Amino acid sequence: MTELANAEAFENVHEWHEFLGGNVTINSDESFEVAIGSRYRATFVNVDQNVALTDAGRIDWASVEFVKLTAISEVP
């Protein structure tokens, strides 16, 4: 659960993603998954009202301060 506790220490989601390194997967629906140990993953979505988009129309995670945990699931 350390991965989740660390999230509060960062100014934006991009910083958290950089800290997590390979433990983050950004999905095509703009949700992202964080590996929690080797058995679980947590899925988050953006809930920030002031999100910026990249030139490609994707979320600029450096502009996101607020996310919502939508699921914790076991890795198949």
Compact description:
This protein is α+β, with helices and mostly antiparallel strands. Helix content is 17%, strand content 30%.
Please give a structural write-up.
The chain contains 2 helices and 4 strands; from the N terminus they run H-H-E-E-E-E. A hairpin with a 3-residue loop joins strand 2 (32-36) and strand 3. With 76 residues, the protein is an alpha+beta fold. It has a 4-stranded antiparallel sheet with strand order 1-2-3-4. Helix content is 17%, strand content 30%.
Tell me the number of strands.
4
Subunit arrangement of the protein: single chain
CA radius of gyration? 12 Å
Shape: globular
How much of the sequence lies in strands comes to 25-35%
Based on secondary structure, the structural category is: alpha+beta
Task: Note poorly predicted spans.
Answer: none
Q: How is the main sheet built?
A: 4 strands, antiparallel
What is the typical, i.e. mean, pLDDT? Answer: 90
Key traits:
globular; alpha+beta; 2 helices
Sequence-ordered SSE layout with sheet pairings:
Blueprint: H1 2-6, H2 13-20, E1 24-26, E2 32-36, E3 40-46, E4 67-74
Antiparallel strand pairs: 1-2, 2-3, 3-4
